[in-house]
Amino acid sequence: MNETHASSPKAEAFSAARAVAAGIDFAELRLGAHGLFWNEYRPEDGACRIWHWRDGQAHCLTPPGFSVRSRVYEYGGGAFCLSDDGLLFVNEADQQLYRQSLRGEAPVALTTGECRYGDVQFAAGQVLAVEEQHDQHRLVSIDTDNGKRQLLAEGADFYAAPTLSPDGQRLAWIEWDRPHQPWTATRLMVADRLANGRWDDPRCLAGDDAQESLQQPRFDATGRLYCLTDRAGFWQPWGETRNGLQALPCAAADHAPAPWQLGTCTWLPLGGDNWFGTWTEAGFGHLGLRVDGTQQDFSGSYSRFRNLALDERFIYCIAASPVSPSAVLAIDRQSQQVTLLAGGVAPLPPEQISRPCTLRYPSGQGEAHGFFYPAMGDAERPPLVVFIHGGPTSACYPILDPRIQYWAQRGFAVADLNYRGSSGYGREYRQALHLRWGEVDVEDACAVVAYLAGQGLVDGERAFIRGGSAGGYTTLCALAFADVFRAGASLYGVSDPLALGRATHKFEGDYLDWLIGDPEQEAERYRARTPLLHAGNIRVPVIFFQGELDAVVVPQQTRDMLKALQDKGIAAQAHYYPDERHGFRKAANQAHALEQEWRFYRQVMEQAGTPH
Known about the structure:
eight-stranded mixed β-sheet, Peptidase S9, Xaa-Pro_dipeptidyl-ppase/CocE, 6-blade_b-propeller_TolB-like, serine-type peptidase activity, AB_hydrolase_fold
């Protein structure tokens, strides 16, 4: 890009601070007798608060000093639910459950102690929840009047999605054991209530062969049980029959993302073969309602949908589009008129927004997916920033991401990749990363540069790569094992998989065995794919960003990689944030990291003598 565009008023006006401030997000819609509620994250202080839609306005219910966020399995989710007279939530600071009425009283602690809670559901005067005590996990119910706790299930390594039938006589949940992950193999469990009020021994309804991933069990009004399973190649809705599960009519597509967080709701059964939900095709989300063999599309101009709710008049969801960030929507079921309840305000006018173009390109022996965002301005063959998402079994989406727009405003094109192993393209595509982490993802990251340069869309000699967490590992591998990128940025990224395996938390304790192999039996493979051991291969500058409170990728990983590069004379630098965990949540830190990364790339191009 040329110098005049890089310092143009438009680019300068859309600062890192503005980009970060636009990153308001929403989660966990809950619909009940008192209306619609949601959890809202605001980057200015990193807190999450419950909002209530009533009288045509949104009202914040969370008082100062509280933030509604679970850290079960570190990634949390399912941090609040509605009760008969208010709500119950997990407080971020102490991870305890609190009861809050709608009459304005201060929240009251329902639990105390060292346990953490998540995936909370209210049923029959009790809270159903996943309880975490150090490395032990179980399902419990807690009476909302007296805090009395009852054990519902234990013995499995992990639990999720406890749900009670409308008559209170059946309890269903998802569980899985190490070494599996929730997106590789889980079990759908059911227990019946006995005459004495206790629960009978649970039985496995599906997944006992460890060949499918099940998620989001739901009962309909009649007590029939449904869930999503990928046994046919995609996460699709199936319903209980006398002979097991039976597929519901639906698209051959994923109807949910990989369940990294608890409390997800991307579909709802409506009885029989009827259902309401979202699914993904070619990376773009769709929203539909299937009733009596007819499917009605409510997608409109939006391209991603999360956390669904439904009543007789409206469809409620969290949605985003290529030109609008996350918003809470109410969609009229008859007219399809969309009412914006919260969020959705774009930080730029439509004509200044770079729109995503679908990427589907050859890579190795297969093909990979993603989205291409052209640089804003009239520069030919601009520099390219390749975004690598974390997970790695996660995904990117074709929605307005202020961070991507920050780069586009500065004359960079962006390739946001759903490399092989990403969710949203079926089980086979997701499983393509099995034992090949550090290979196929790197191959896809390098191949997109050649593909876009071959199309004349970017300057392949000015390509940069960045990624957070697992995306940081792919970034470092690409820099160490390929000669494609001019520089890279690792945000709380993995540099030593073996060290990660020794230090990381239980939820991901065996994930590396699936991604790379058994550390003892495949020691040579680990050595070959450890960026720290191949730091001498890196010939280009690298910048690191790391939270000091990170329990997933511990800070020592970044310090070791930084030292290895600096010892080799590579221009490497690092920025540490003492108040951040895995993933930055505070606006000042996010803005600082974004601006420092841009300045870093700009300096690299200046020192190389290339126009920027």
